[in-house]
């Protein structure tokens, strides 16, 4: 009976190690996702400021083009002034030319203001880029480190698959089936009873008779509280106490 317990304990040792690796590995994708979201948010902040700069530049260029078109139009009007046959027609066209030139002056002032705003915004973009590059380096390094850990954990689990299969083969078939049923509900599935008969898995104090029987038989039973497979701890501790 003791040999069966030893084989099952060896299997559980592998399962506990696999469970710990998987628990860590399961957390990595979430952590990576959060860091990637931070990186995307930081990049979006830079893009938003750059979009503001692009819009200012677009407005400035559009105004400059409008001024240029207006100047061409005024030049044509000025050429037609001498062609006017009446004072009234001349005055009307001259007034239109004056209004257009005033409009050009207003637009020219707007171009200057847009240029001033663009200069300020260009500095904002530069500062945001510096901030993003610094933050990006840290986040990228963290993401890369987590991905390495995830890869290492997955590789370790794969490596332990072979060890588990070998350990499982050494366990009594009926006991293995019983162990796997419990393992799917709670781990560890195999738990020692410590004197005077307390289940280490759930902390329940069991009958002293059960503990004494397990010591004498060097066998195993089920905890009536948590259903774990239980054994007397001193049975597996024997080699160390001799």
What does this entry show, briefly?
This protein is mostly helical and 242 residues long.
Summarize the helices and strands and which ones pair or pack.
Elements: H1 2-80, H2 87-169, H3 173-183, E1 190-194, E2 198-199, H4 208-217, E3 221-222, E4 229-232, H5 233-241
Parallel strand pairs: 1-4
Antiparallel strand pairs: 1-2, 3-4
Helix pairs in contact: 1-2
Describe the structure.
With 242 residues, the protein is mainly α. The mean pLDDT is 90. The protein is built from five helices and four strands, in the order H-H-H-E-E-H-E-E-H.
For the biggest sheet, the summary is: 4 strands, mixed
Instruction: Compute the average pLDDT.
Output: 90
Q: What is the count of β-strands? A: 4
Name given to the CATH architecture of the largest domain? Orthogonal Bundle
Helix count, DSSP H or I runs of 4 or more residues = 5
**C-alpha Rg (nearest Å):** 41 Å
Measured between the Cα atoms of the first and last residue, the distance is 19 Å
Unreliably modeled segments = none
Percentage of residues assigned to helices: over 70%
Give the overall shape: rod-shaped
Order of helices and strands: HHHEEHEEH
CATH class of the largest domain: Mainly Alpha
CATH topology (fold) name of the largest domain: Helix Hairpins
Structural class: mainly alpha
Task: Supply the number of structural domains.
Answer: 2
Strand order, biggest sheet?
2-1-4-3
In terms of DSSP E residues, the strand content is 5-15%
